[in-house]
Amino acid sequence: MTLQSLRFGLFLGALLTLSGCSLLPEKAPSTLYRLPAANVTSHTGAATHPTRLGIATPEAGHLLSSNRIVVFPEGNVVNVYEGARWHEDAPDMLQAQLIAGLQQRKLFANVGSDRLPHDLQLLSELRHFQSEYDTTPPSINLQLDVQLVGRDQRLVASTSFAVRERSASADIPDVVSAFGRATDQLTDHLANWLAANATD
To answer: Which residues 6+ apart lie within 8 Å of 177 measured at CB?
Structure first.
């Protein structure tokens, strides 16, 4: 090694170890989004079912179990929105939204996480939760497979819900709003199904 190359190596090492300095460009922070609050007209009167419903966090595949906002831009291409993320992982966020929506409907004596005492439990798998450019602006594709089980894990009923909601534009805030409307529709369908299938 020549003296010149040795000096260059020492100089480069000093640059890399300087506090607060980097040779790589800094990545811009992502904007965090939450689903709009559940848009439900509150019900009054006694609960339809005097039982406690526990809602488990939906199961999901690797891509949907993160806080990335998934988009299918064309054909079989799968991507995520750059510079935008959910404020928490999508299954946790959907669980909280379903709990809030069903609490407002007062269908059960109590609705909460399945970590709390419950008489019935709602298990689910999130199959789709993405924006799709089937046309422009994109639409939201939401699919949730659900099972209602008793305290002994006996299957009471099962079904699958599929919802599509068109975004007002391709802008991310409008896409997020469409995710919120799709989730409200899902909660409506789920509430009607629970009302017909829940047993004390």
So the answer is: 36, 167, 168
- In this structure, how many other beta carbons lie within 10 angstroms of the beta carbon of residue 99? 19
Q: Is 50 exposed, middle or buried (0-12, 13-18, 19+ CB in 10 A)?
A: exposed
Q: Do the bridges between strand 139-150 and strand 155-166 make them parallel or antiparallel, or are there none, so unpaired?
A: antiparallel
Closest CA to 188 of 85, 98, 86, 91: 98
Give me the helix-helix angle, 90-105 and 172-197, nearest 10°. 50
What type of residue sits at position 69?
I
The rounded distance, in Å, linking the Cα atoms of 154 and 128 is: 26
Residue 146: which region, alpha, beta or left (left: phi > 0; alpha: psi -120 to 50)? Answer: beta
Kindly tell me the number of DSSP H helices and DSSP E strands found in the chain. 3, 9
Give the closest residue to 163 by CA, choosing from 146, 181, 145, 186: 186
pTM for this model (two decimals): 0.83
Tokens for 65?
Answer: 């179990």
Q: Could you tell me which residues are beta bridge partners of residue 126?
A: 60, 144
Q: List, for residues 108-143, the tens digit of each pLDDT value.
A: 999 999 999 999 999 999 999 999 998 999 999 999
